[in-house]
Amino acid sequence: MTDPATQPSRLLRQVNAANRWLGRCHPALATAILVAVCAIGTQILLVICGALFEQPLTGKMYLICAIITVLVATPVILHAQLMLRAQRAARYRLKLMTRELAIAVHNAEGVNTSRTAQFAAMSHELRTPMNAIVGFSDILRNERFGPMQNARYLEFAGDINDSAQHLLDLINNLLDLAKLEAGGFDTRDMAAVEVEDAIEMAVRLLRPLATKQEVAVSIDVDAPGLHVLAIERMLRQILINLLSNAIKFTLPQGRVGIALRRSASGDAEIRVSDSGIGMTPADIRAAFMPFGQVDSMLSRRHAGTGLGLPLAKAMAELNHGQLELTSTPGEGTVVTLRFPALESDCSVTPAHQRRIEDLAASTEEML
Fold first, then answer.
1. Most exposed residue of 28, 138, 160, 201, measured as fewest CB within 10 angstroms of its CB?
2. Rounded to whole angstroms, what are the CA distances from 63 to 47, 49, 60, 69, 104?
């Protein structure tokens, strides 16, 4: 015995089957069939109405009703048929395009992954000889195995060392960028990192550049002992990139400051400020683009790849941080980093205070 609950679904399946059959027919044939169905339906409806209202029906009335039904229903049904077929064809083309796009995206991801792996392997192969060139040229420039007879050789060794160091920095930045795009960094490498130690390390590494540029670097730590959850090498690289940019684009006798404090929301906030040339909104947009260069006389005096700021922003976001930049032409730039802090104790201990004062004094003495 048939279950009555299954009747509507069976009827719906039959209607869908009839609709598919009509879709395979020619539009004129499908329109004629549907118009005939409508005409038969109006005749049946006319008979029912005549019986209900007890009105006699003549053959002329049946004919007039059929003619009106055909004249009214034919253009409507034909237009609907054409629209439905066009929609069905568009849906089919969209399905094909979606399938082709999915295949193209899959192939592109495979090609990108392969290129990233090849590029990483090539970068490692390049870094080995570049490290050798940097090391040997540094030995020659510093005359560690004895004095050179000709001063020109010392000049050439210095040029070789500077060029090799620039190429090595470029290779490292490109490798980091490729790994970031390919998701090559594992966030499971994150650990508790003391922000103050990372700041001190970055300042020490950039002392020679600050001395060469005649730029004073100051440190202000209001919240010592702050720890953040990050990849330590990345946090240090972020600070190095931001500080090197600040020093390079600050005029001689200018100042660069780096401050650490706990924000009102409890985050560790690092501010890198300078009294440099500043940037317009268009310059800021260009600076955040990979290989983007700010078009100014001062920027053209310094070798750069245009990857420092984009890498810093990408690395900060990978470590659950934020990077914001505000700048005014002629007044300087302020870059703010925010990371969720892990430690709540912000008291300044005597050891922390002595370390801050010693480091600040040493940065001032180098000028």
1. 28
2. 13, 16, 5, 10, 60
Task: Find the radius of gyration of the CA atoms of the chain.
Answer: 38
Cα-based distances in Å from 59 to 13, 53, 63, 70, 315? 37, 18, 6, 17, 86
Q: Are 73 and 38 in contact (CB under 8 A)?
A: yes
| Residue-number span of the structural domain to which 327 is assigned | 189-365
SS3 303: coil
* Residues 6 or more apart in contact with residue 114 via CB below 8 angstroms: none
* 248 vs 171: CA distance, rounded Å: 20
Ramachandran region, residue 364 (left: φ > 0; alpha: ψ -120 to 50; beta: rest): alpha
Residue 227 CB-half CA count within 13 A: 9
H/E element holding 237? Answer: helix 232-248
Handedness of CA 273, 274, 279, 284 (dihedral sign): negative
pTM greater than 0.70: no
Residue finishing a domain among 184, 205, 227: 184
Q: Which of 165, 184, 203 finishes a domain?
A: 184
Chain centroid to CA 266: 26
Contact between residue 251 and residue 211 where contact means Cβ atoms under 8 Å apart: no
Tell me the per-residue pLDDT of 28-65, one tens digit each, with 9 for 90 and over: 877 788 788 888 888 888 788 877 777 777 777 778 88
% of the chain residues with pLDDT over 70: 81
pLDDT digits (tens, 9 = 90+) for 239-266: 988 998 899 888 899 999 999 999 888 8
Quick one: pLDDT at residue 270?
Answer: 93
Report the distance separating Cα 117 and Cα 367, nearest Å. 44
CA 222 and chain centroid, separation: 32
My answer on whether 334 and 239 are in the same domain is: yes
DSSP 296: S
**Identity at 23, one-letter amino acid code:** G
Contact 336, 271 (CB under 8 A): yes
Q: For the chain, how many structural domains are there in total?
A: 2
What is the CATH number for 280?
Answer: 3.30.565.10
Cα 134 to Cα 163: distance, rounded to the nearest angstrom: 9
